[in-house]
Amino acid sequence: MLHDEYLHVIATKSITSENTRFYHLVLWTLIVLKSWKFWVGCALFIGLIWLVENSIGWLSILQSWQAIPPQSLGIALLLMLASYLLRAVRFYDFFQPQVKGAFAPLLRITVLHNFFNNMLPMRSGEAAFPVLMKTRFGIPFSHSAPALLWLRLLDLYALLALAFISLQVLIPWGIEIRTLLAVAVVLAPLVALLIQNQLRRYLASRQGWKLKAAELMAALPEHPATFIRALFWTFINWVLKLAVYSWLLQVFTGLDLHKAWTGATTGELSSVLPIHGVAGAGTYEAGVLAGLIPWAVDQKVALAAAVNLHLFVLGTTFVLTALLVLATQVSTRENTP
After folding, report:
1. Fewer CB within 10 A of the end CB, N or C, for the chain?
2. pLDDT at residue 312 is higher than 90
3. Which tens digits make up the pLDDT trace of 125-162?
């Protein structure tokens, strides 16, 4: 795995100077460039540009934004800003013993991590988080990497759970049954906490790799309160984020909310594919199309909506990353040991 190779190399290095950080950047770049998946991602990027121009036209894509009032786009941007802040709050809560009193630096790490994730192929931007956490807070990879994996699993579950809840309108059940089912789906991950604690105790009593696995699991939440808060922040963030994306798909396709929500969800789920285009180009659109086409949306309309949604995602990524990195720059320097 690309991430494993990168983390294995940098784990043996010191990240204490600008020269060393530059070395890591060059090393990481070389690892990415020698991966065949990177070049497939580049091909997907070029292919998407050609496909859109030949089937719809980029000018037509851009002109469709004129139908959205600037005030509405402003509200959508503010909601995305709130989503960024919620992600930082989740990390701050999860890593509180190590980052207490340093929310601004952690916010900076969060937005940079998100930027790399959105822009780099094959989710290689995930490797940035453990590196940045070690650089700024001295948190070892053995703690930050498993914790990030745990939060990503919560993200995946929240996406699927919210998609299921949104599609309940298609089931001819009463509101009471649907409400109880929705609550059960949201709270179901709490069962994993019981299994996790039992597994940790089992591994801790063994030797060899099982003991090492127990050490890695120490990064995961042991107390129910921490787990519940992580679950809460995860669901709130995804409700906010998917609501914005679904609204945009509604505007561009005319679909009902639950149908547009499906397209927004499958677009986000495309990130788990083994092949991921540069900036998600091609794979993100394919994910959105997978959620829209079953609702009998015209293919060109669906493609245009998927491209426009992706443009919004990338646009907000650039704007909010620049805004928040600049806003946290002074505070980060003041708090740097």
Report:
1. C
2. yes
3. 788 899 999 989 999 888 898 889 889 989 999 999 99
To the nearest 5 percent, what fractions of the chain are helix, strand and coil? 85, 0, 15
Cα–chain center distance at 80: 13
Nearest to 159 by CA among 167, 170, 171: 167
Residue 191 placed within a domain: yes
Let me know if residue 275 belongs to a domain: yes
Cβ-contact 263, 180 below 8 angstroms: no
Report if residue 24 sits inside a domain: no
Rounded-to-10 torsion of CA 75, 325, 238, 236: -80
Q: Which amino acid is at 190?
A: L
Query: Could you give the percent of the chain with pLDDT greater than 90?
Result: 45
Q: How far is CA 143 from CA 30, 111, 131, 213, 224, in A?
A: 26, 20, 12, 11, 19
Domain span at residue 219 reads: 35-335
pLDDT of residue 74: 95
Strand segments, DSSP code E, in 22-116 are none
Count other C-beta atoms under 10 Å from residue 268's C-beta.
23
Residue 141 within a domain: yes
Rounded Cα–Cα distance for residues 26 and 157 (Å): 35
What is the distance between the alpha carbons of residues 53 and 38, in angstroms, rounded to a whole number? Answer: 23
**Could you tell me the pLDDT band of residue 275, with boundaries at 50, 70 and 90?**
low
Q: DSSP readout, 125-169?
A: GGGHHHHHHHHHH---HHHHHHHHHHHHHHHHHHHHHHHHHHGGG
* Structural domains counted in the chain: 1
Does the model's pTM come out above 0.85? Answer: no
